[in-house]
Amino acid sequence: MPRLYLTRTELARHFRVPESRVAQWVAQGCPCVNPSLRSQHNKWQHLLFKLPDVERWLNSFTQPEPRLTQLQFDFH
Fold first, then answer.
1. Which residue from 8, 17, 34, 38 has the highest number of Cβ atoms inside 10 Å of its Cβ?
2. Residue 70 phi/psi, 5° resolution?
3. What are the Cα distances from residue 33, in Å, to 4, 19, 40, 66, 74?
4. First-to-last CA distance in the chain?
5. Rounded distance between C-alpha atoms, residue 4 and residue 54, angstroms
6. Radius of gyration of the chain measured on its C-alpha atoms
């Protein structure tokens, strides 16, 4: 059974991106939880990510490529 929550390192590996990209996603509003709010100094280190929520968030930014037809070329 896969784990419900991933660390930032595991998330970066899953999507094959650098951890700095995950930091950008967090800054842009990527859903995550911080189970240890005791220390603001270690805030970033303790973030956990629920994979289905992150996938849904990322998919909200992707749009299908528009398909151009011959008809559009004729009238534009």
1. 8
2. -60, -35
3. 12, 17, 14, 35, 52
4. 53
5. 12
6. 18
Encode pLDDT of 43-57 as tens digits: 555 789 999 999 999
Report the SS3 class of residue 3: coil
CA pair distance 68, 59, nearest whole angstrom: 23
Handedness of CA 22, 40, 2, 30 (dihedral sign): negative
Count CA atoms closer than 13 A to 4's CA, side-chain side. 1
Tell me which of 76 and 25 has the higher pLDDT: 25
What is the dihedral sign for C-alpha 32, 48, 52, 17?
positive
DSSP state of 67: P
